[in-house]
Amino acid sequence: MIKRVFITGGTHGNEACGVVLAKHFMASPELFSGFSFDTTVMLTNVASIGTNTRYVEEDMNRCFFKADLDDPTKTATLEARRAKELNAVFGPKGTSAAADFIIDLHNTTAATGVALMMSPTDELGHAIAAHLIALDPSVKVCNWNATQADWPMLPSVGKHGMTFEVGPVPWGVVDGAVYKQTRRLVLAALDYVEAHNAALARDGPWSSSTVQVHSFVRSVDYPRDASGELAGVIHPQLQGRDFGRLARGDPAFLALDGQTTIPYTAPEEEVEELFPFFINEAAYYEKKTAFMLARRIDRPVQVAKQSPQYELS
Ligand SMILES: [Zn+2]
């Protein structure tokens, strides 16, 4: 049974659509009454909201490894300290006291549309995703790196959780269409949680479904010169093509002469189809990531059939 839900905004202070939506939700408690679970809405990296930057000293959305949260010496940055405070509010991570479900609101400069990022083993997260895809077929699902045992993202503190990533939006900008779509889908996610609780309480009905998942494979850096400066930019034919197929030899980068195409060069042994996302995300230049690559898999999931009370038109 899902009892404690958190909706968080401002984990990156310049992702303004999520910040404004969280503030709206905080001022609108009536939206969250009448459910069988409690919903708390809060701002997380408050200092970075004040400075309208992604972070002040360190990317807070890389501060939630359980080992770091449990390490009392990991307090060097403002964000590391804030992560520990937040872990006390909706964690502690990995314990029975942790929140049941966390939605962390983000925006990206990449043309991802709505992309829900979650643990590959999060059954409820994928069921929510299936529900949202039924309402809005443009919604995409990404899995955090399945080869890792733990992740440093804020929503990984909850028993279930997702990064609610929406783009493209420039830093500090609230895009009305993105705002409207995000608000509708976040509230629809809560409707699904209610249906999930109802199905648990009456032992069904559940239906078998599948969700198309983009499973992280690796990151690709920009071409760089010997001193690490950019030697190429995202190719115009790749710009904005998040979740389209990228095949060996396709244009990936444009050299700084503005003429020379630098093709995508896959390793010899790589024969599977891969799909790029987070193409030209502004925050990832410093992380040496021009785009990420995912493989597509169809993941089975059990979905609570909606009771009429929560059916959405
Ligand atoms: Zn973010």
Automatic annotation (TrEMBL):
Q: Where does Zn(2+) bind?
A: 12, 15, 106
Q: Which UniProt keywords apply?
A: Hydrolase, Metal-binding, Zinc
Q: Which CDD domains match?
A: M14_ASPA
Q: How is the cofactor bound?
A: Binds 1 zinc ion per subunit.
Which Gene Ontology molecular-function terms are recorded?
hydrolase activity, acting on carbon-nitrogen (but not peptide) bonds, in linear amides; hydrolase activity, acting on ester bonds; metal ion binding
The record's listing under InterPro entries reads: AspA/AstE_fam (IPR050178), Aspartoacylase (IPR016708), AstE_AspA_cat (IPR055438), Aste_AspA_hybrid_dom (IPR007036)
Sequence ranges assigned to domain Succinylglutamate desuccinylase/Aspartoacylase catalytic in this UniProt record? 2-192
The protein's matches in Pfam families, at most eight in alphabetical order, are given as:
AstE_AspA_cat (PF24827), AstE_AspA_hybrid (PF04952)
GO CC, one annotated term: cytosol
Which cofactor names does the annotation list?
A: Zn(2+)
Q: Which SUPFAM superfamilies match?
A: Zn-dependent exopeptidases
Which family does the UniProt entry place this protein in?
Belongs to the AspA/AstE family. Aspartoacylase subfamily.
Q: What is this protein called?
A: Aspartoacylase
Source organism of this protein record: Chrysochromulina tobinii
